[in-house]
Design goal:
Length: about 180
C-alpha cells in the first residue's frame, strides 16, 4: 500500500484530546467495505468500562451488562469488553453503538464467544442482522440505553421513524445471540 492509497480521517469525541487519527485504505472509502467507529475517550476507556467490567466480573450486572469474551481474529487470544445484552421479543442481541469495534470484527471472524457475569460463563454463537432486521432491535436498544449510548446514534432515538433507524443501521452492527451448536 502506498501513501496515495491511504485516507486519513479523524475520529471525534466529546472529551478533549480523546479523538484519534485512524488511517483507512482507500478501498474502504469506495464502498468495498464501509466502516464507522467512534473511539471511546479516556474517561470511558479507563474509568467507566473498567468499573462496569469489574462489577460484571464479580457478579453484578449493571442494566444487563455482560463481559463479552471472543477470540482475537489474528492472535487467537481471548479478548474481553463490557457489552449490553438486549433481550427483545424473546430473543437476545448484541449491538455495537460505536460501530465497527474490534469486538465486532473478532466476533464476525470467530462466529461465537462467551458472555460472562461473575462465575457464570455462557457460550454462544451469533448471526449478524441485516439492516431491515435491525430496525426493531435498534429501537429497543435505544429505548433501554439511550442515556448511555444515544450520542453515537446521530440524534436518532427510540421514537424515530423506521426510515431514520434504517438509515443509521449500517453503521451499527448487531448480532442475534444463539445457543452453541
Amino acid at each position: 500500500m502506498t501513501a496515495a492509497d491511504v485516507v486519513t480521517r479523524e475520529t471525534t469525541s466529546r472529551a478533549p484530546g480523546a479523538g484519534s487519527v485512524v488511517e483507512w485504505p482507500e478501498a474502504m472509502q469506495n464502498g468495498a467495505v464501509t466502516t464507522h467507529y467512534r473511539a471511546p475517550g479516556w474517561l470511558t476507556r479507563n474509568v467507566f468500562n473498567r468499573a462496569v467490567a469489574f462489577m460484571t466480573r464479580h457478579g453484578v450486572s449493571v442494566l444487563g451488562s455482560r463481559v463479552l469474551a471472543v477470540q482475537g481474529r489474528t492472535s487467537g487470544k481471548w479478548r474481553t469488553t463490557p457489552v449490553n445484552l438486549l433481550e427483545h421479543d424473546g430473543r437476545r442481541y448484541l449491538v455495537a453503538p460505536r460501530g465497527e469495534a474490534q469486538w465486532v470484527r473478532n466476533l464476525r471472524a470467530a462466529g461465537n464467544g462467551q458472555l460472562r457475569v461473575g462465575q457464570r460463563v455462557e457460550a454462544f454463537r451469533v448471526r449478524e442482522l441485516d439492516p431491515d432486521e435491525k430496525v426493531p432491535v435498534l429501537r429497543a436498544y435505544l429505548r433501554r440505553w439511550k442515556f448511555e449510548v444515544g450520542v453515537f446514534f446521530d440524534g436518532t432515538g427510540p421514537t424515530s421513524s423506521d426510515d431514520e433507524l434504517r438509515a443509521i443501521a449500517p453503521r451499527h452492527p448487531a448480532f442475534e445471540v444463539l445457543p452453541p451448536v
